[in-house]
Design a protein that fits this description.
By secondary structure, this protein is α+β, with helices and mostly antiparallel strands. It has helices at 2-34, 42-53, 55-60, and strands at residues 62-71, 79-84, 102-108, 112-119, 124-132, 138-148.
Length: 152
């Protein structure tokens, strides 16, 4: 009997922890939506969520060949201009701040929404640009993968 209660209790804890992590990601982008400085459209919030939940939707909303920056395989400290292709695209997952190690910011420039993700020191950064294609949809038009940013 004690084993049954322990299993049920453990299952409830796992479900609560899973739901908490999922709500943090959603609530964070909703907080950005509500932040007057970011002014993220509600349609973008809905699009962004679906973009990370549905791999087919994601591929359909990327402008291939996708311009951006990739890590130079010969020198990990350098980035090179690249054009990402659909057949080699790695599906992007929802944002994870890894316990506060990474932060995310947005800029809304009248239909162009730029997302920045960086570690706490700013040494490593990623950038994605989404362009509005209609009142309710966007396309990813630029992607600079997570890379080390050298001081200039």
């Amino acid at each position: 009997m004690k084993v049954t209660y322990a299993i049920i209790f453990s299952a409830i804890i796992i479900v609560l922890i899973s739901c908490k992590g999922e709500n943090n990601s959603t609530s964070e982008i909703e907080a950005a939506y509500n932040d007057r400085n970011n002014q993220l459209p509600a349609t973008f919030v809905k699009f962004y969520k679906q973009f990370h939940e549905d791999s087919i939707f994601q591929i359909e909303h990327i402008q291939f060949p996708l311009a951006g920056l990739a890590i130079d395989t010969n020198n990990q400290d350098l980035s090179v201009d690249t054009f990402w292709q659909a057949d080699t695209w790695k599906i992007h997952q929802p944002f994870n701040d890894y316990g506060g190690t990474f932060k995310r910011e947005y800029r809304n420039m009248k239909g162009l929404i730029i997302e920045y993700i960086a570690n706490s020191t700013g040494d490593f950064r990623m950038e994605r640009r989404f362009l509005s294609t209609s009142e309710e949809s966007y396309n990813l038009i630029y992607y600079a993968e997570m890379r080390r940013v050298l001081p200039q």
